[in-house]
Amino acid sequence: MTLSSTAGPVPVAAGLWHEQHVPLYWRGLRYTARVVRPDPSQHVPPAPSPPGDTGTPAVTEPLLLLGGALQDMYSWPRLERRIAPWTPIVLVDLPGTGTADDLAPDQGFDFLADAALHLLDHLALPRVNVLGTSYGAPIAYRIAQRHPDRVARLLLAGTTRRVPAPVRALLREVADHLEAVVRGEEPPAQDDGTGTARRENAERLVDLLINKGARERVEQSDAARRLLCRQFLRTAPTEALRNAACHRRLLGADLIPDGGIRGVPALVFTGEHDITTTPDDNRSVAATIEGAAFVLLRHADHMAHLERDGEYAELVLRFLRDLPLDGLPFCTSPEYLPQPSAHRAG
Amino acid sequence: MTFEQVKEILTTKGGLPAAPIAPDASLASANIDSMALVVLSMQVEEGTGVEVSEDVLAQAATVAELAELVGRYAEPRA
């Protein structure tokens, strides 16, 4: 799904964090990872512990974060700030996103999962936590399914087994338009010169991601809408083409491969008002993972990481540290779903 | 708008921790990201009716400069 972020003109927080950029090369394509950890030369205030934390030492595997289609490795400053005191975070511009080389249209999530595994090998990380959000979720799923021994914990946010029909139709339409504009077959928007058509297109995309109908019930809904809209309007034509390619990748085969996952502790979650990947869509993915917990963040939609960044981070951190998820005021009680036979792991 | 007022908005509405927000801190080291600037812009607009782009606010080198910039927008227009 198209996702956007806090990425923008402001650089990611500096000073307390040490970041390492790692150039990578996989099957002829260049891409880059970024590892964020506390800077040992700086004083880092201790991270506030989640309520109920007994003070257990902060030991967990590094977190590999695979973000949304319109995000890059700088898109998660708020999560970085909250997670990095506990464990390094590995962010990556996989081929077809951010600073990486373009990815051929016929390459899909299998290729991207292999590229992410190559990254782990390159960093000599035998075992990590993996968080896949939206477009990143099918990649994370494949890693855990094929290499459960490499995934300490799997977190999927805003995921679906198949993009719903109305979303598919709009994504296809947007991708067609973006490609036609870049090829010069259509003017840069059937525009009236005032940017109105461009803005309308941006707003249609934003309407996919932000639940307009729940505006009063979603925290920071207006701010998230404005941030996304501005970001779409700033998108350059070459970037738009890459976005179109990501959209088409989501329209391909089933996002979640058959066979399920077992042997990996997993958490699936999204905002309770998510209309891009609905709670039921997410629940159906959780049902393919043996023992997975499923929760909904209250007062949030598909853009929960923007709307409730603190609670989002707390949920992630709790799961990474094996703390209980019951009784949290900002999300529903965990559900543990029976696996349908078609997806029963094994 | 004063530095304290801007800090108040950033912490209570923008979800940022207070400690790093010092007058001489850069926006990055104060954790002021695009979302925080959008929230700040919206608050200024709500209070004054004057549109202020977060892209303009992002040009500030420090939080003190940001407050000064916001203050200029928030001043009553002749």
From TrEMBL, chain A:
What residues does the AB hydrolase-1 domain cover?
62-308
What SUPFAM superfamilies does the database record attribute to this sequence? Answer: alpha/beta-Hydrolases
Species whose genome carries this gene: Streptomyces cirratus
Q: Where is this region: Disordered?
A: 39-58
Keyword line = Oxidoreductase, Peroxidase
Q: Known InterPro entries for this protein?
A: AB_hydrolase, AB_hydrolase_1, AB_hydrolase_fold, Epox_hydrolase-like
Protein name, as recorded: AB hydrolase-1 domain-containing protein
Automatic annotation (TrEMBL), chain B:
| PROSITE patterns referenced in this protein's UniProt entry, alphabetically | CARRIER
Q: Name one Pfam family in it.
A: PP-binding
Carrier domain location is 1-74
Specify the superkingdom: Bacteria
Q: Signal peptide position in this chain?
A: none
- This chain's protein is named Carrier domain-containing protein
